[in-house]
Write a structure and sequence with these properties.
Blueprint: H1 2-9, H2 19-30, H3 39-50, H4 53-59, E1 67-71, H5 78-90, H6 95-101, E2 105-109, E3 121-123, E4 126-128, E5 131-133, E6 137-140, E7 145-146, E8 150-151
Parallel strand pairs: 1-6
Antiparallel strand pairs: 1-2, 3-6, 4-5, 7-8
């Protein structure tokens, strides 16, 4: 790709701070000029059109992140916590649910499998067409949450 850009743009334009170089680089990298030329690009566009954002996040991570999102029973917003807890079992993970959860959500590096914190986490499942799929969203057990210290796993 670099050789093709050098031929097309010339050495003068091959500078990281040059706007045309940046534009052409990313255009070539993601093949944005011709979405039909690449099956992966077409699949991504179909997922975007369908609004399948959790699937997009799972399949097209540009930066490796192994984090989980945890909903915490923060006392001033306890009603919101209880509402989200109810909706998680009835409806599951949706775009609106995620948006509503933001004020009481923290992000954690994914704990190791044998970490005792898993005993305090309830997964929020993605419901689609009769199936349930695991996500990176969890609800922290209210009885294990310390109002002064916050998320404080018991050993």
């Amino acid at each position: 790709m670099t050789k093709e850009l050098l031929t097309r743009l010339g050495s003068e334009a091959m500078q990281m701070h040059h706007p045309e170089f940046i534009h052409q680089y990313y255009k070539n990298l993601y093949n944005l000029s011709d979405p039909n030329a690449n099956k992966e690009t077409q699949a991504l566009l179909e997922l975007i059109a369908a609004g399948a954002f959790p699937e997009i996040a799972k399949e097209y991570r540009l930066i490796k992140q192994d984090n989980i999102n945890v909903i915490c029973p923060y006392q001033p917003l306890l009603d919101l916590y209880q509402q989200l807890e109810t909706e998680s079992s009835e409806i599951g993970l949706t775009k609106d649910w995620i948006q509503n959860a933001k004020p009481i959500t923290i992000s954690l590096y994914r704990p190791k499998t044998d970490n005792p914190i898993w005993d305090s986490l309830t997964p929020v499942l993605l419901h689609k067409r009769g199936q349930q799929e695991q996500t990176d969203w969890f609800i922290y057990n209210q009885e294990h949450y310390d109002q002064r210290l916050g998320l404080y796993p018991k050993d």
